[in-house]
Amino acid sequence: MAIRLTKTSKVIFAISIVLLSSALGYLIWRVNQEENLDPDDSEAGATVPAGCSASATEALTSNCLIWFAEPGQTSACIANRSACCGNLVDVDNGCERCLCCNGTWVTGNTGCSTLCTNNGGYGSCEEVPVEKCFCESWSDACGTNCTFPDGVQAEVDAKAANSCKPYIAMCNVSTGDYVIEEYTPSHVCYNKVSQCNNPFAENPCVTNVCDAGAWVTRPTGNMSFTSDISYSATATDSNGIDLDSISVKLCTGTVTTCTTGQTLSPTKTGSSSPITISGVLSSAAQRLAAGTYTMTITWKDSLGVTGTNCTLTTTFTVLPQETNPNWDITKGVVGLCIDEGTESPKSELTYTITVRNTGDGAGTISKIEDVLDAKVLASFVQSGITAPGVFTDGKIIWSYPSPNELSIAAGATKTFTYKLVIDKDHFGTYANEVTLTPVGSTAIKATANILADCDVAQSDWTITKAVTEACIDEGTANPKSELSYTITVKNTGTGSGTIAKIEDVLDTKVLASFVQTGITSPGAFADGKITWNYATTPLSFTAGEQKIFTYKLIVDKDHFGTYANTVTLTPTVGTTKQATANIGADCTITEEEKPVVPETGIFDNTLGRISAGFVLVIFGVLVYNIPNGVLRINGEKKYKYRVRFEKKVANK
């Protein structure tokens, strides 16, 4: 059935649609609206008024939150926080909450200027910077709401200076006055300086003492008479050093502190601290006499304090002047070749050791010891060593035991010589070191290095190999090839030499029966090689000498072909040498005449043979069937099987 709507129904229906759409839109809008909780539902969930700090709230009552302004937003926060007060259940508590300048909070509806008896010059306490006071009343407010005039901190510093006490400035928030009070454990702001931030200073009592000093260059122990002796020290003090108080004294003998000795005039470098104190005690211009000395340096700080920390003392001894001054030793070596350019040259090394007394007094020595290179053999050391030198255990020693020390006058020189002769097998660098031991002085050393090397005549080697062929019974049915090998070894060097072996590796086709007798002695064939072995007694060659080694092979016609082999020469000293020789063993062969078999070409391959067989089979079949009329000539067609069938039917 059809539903018909009257005009009225249509209007009602349209209105219903509009209302439903509006309700649905409101619900969607409400769902997406920011949540705004009633204080009755949550004490901490109210929307933060503009200009107010979400982190600075306090519960005025159980039903209202009080907001504090963000920095610079006091007016905005005051103007917008009434939204909270609008949610108050008990309006008698007032809409304003004021922080009075005496540190107390009050609430009401009459405004902060009325609610607070003293606003510290501010129109409203909300305009006062929001800081929490840790003290209980204005008299101990620690300056929470005070602004100290310029210069108060300096006054506090001056008050504490040299007092050994701490001081703090306190303000009167009613009058703006301030006082500087001693900061004691009973003070209301004790241990609250960092919280209250009042001007504060302390100067703990410290007893002034002289700080410290240290040696930079300190003369100590035994000092040579000819040594230059100087001193240097630093004086350091936090209060500075009194330059006029610096004193340097030098006493003879050993004392704890020198106070009455010779007064020295040091150099003072620096203006306050640290100060460097330095000077010269002995130099070439003026030497200290031999003996023991004590030197003391003292000073005061700028406050006049001195003490052990401001005192430096040292003791040293100047030794008597020596009459046996510096010793000097040198060592030289000269090389000379003997039989140079021959096969066995030698190098003669002549060593000269020179000892000098360069001082102004005579001196003695107890030993000269020359440690030779480890390559030196006893046979290298020649006779004629300067007496009393002897060679033993790789050393040449001149010994002068007490009381027979060798005396050398001031400015005098002594020389000591010896020789070594080095054979060619030990040529190389020779390094040795000589040590001089004076009596009463430290030992001194000298070294000498030299290369022992002379020209040696040496052997050099060449090896050649040649082969020739001769045919035996050539032109017959069984000719043979005779291969004659010649090996030539020559010493092309400037000196004689020896060889240890000649080894000729034959071609792999060579049979033992091919090798003929008559190989040059002591050559022998074995395992496919001909070897001349001189391992036990090397074969000698003079310079330019050559020696020839020969052997023959006879190759039968069945082994004709190319023969290649390589010979190797092994010298006793040096690298191996090689030579090769290749030849074709081939001679003319004459064969006997044999009957000639005709060549038809039919039976020369398998296909021909098979084809001929088929022809013969077919031919036989034809011959066999001739009696049956296989070859009958008849122009009329015969239907043999049809005729037979018809005959059979007719006979029936």
UniProtKB/TrEMBL annotation:
<keyword id="KW-0472">Membrane</keyword>
<feature type="transmembrane region" description="Helical">
    <location>
        <begin position="610"/>
        <end position="631"/>
    </location>
</feature>
<dbReference type="Pfam" id="PF01345">
    <property type="entry name" value="DUF11"/>
</dbReference>
<dbReference type="InterPro" id="IPR001434">
    <property type="entry name" value="OmcB-like_DUF11"/>
</dbReference>
<dbReference type="InterPro" id="IPR047589">
    <property type="entry name" value="DUF11_rpt"/>
</dbReference>
<feature type="domain" description="DUF11">
    <location>
        <begin position="339"/>
        <end position="437"/>
    </location>
</feature>
<keyword id="KW-0812">Transmembrane</keyword>
<feature type="transmembrane region" description="Helical">
    <location>
        <begin position="12"/>
        <end position="29"/>
    </location>
</feature>
<protein>
    <recommendedName>
        <fullName>DUF11 domain-containing protein</fullName>
    </recommendedName>
</protein>
<keyword id="KW-1133">Transmembrane helix</keyword>
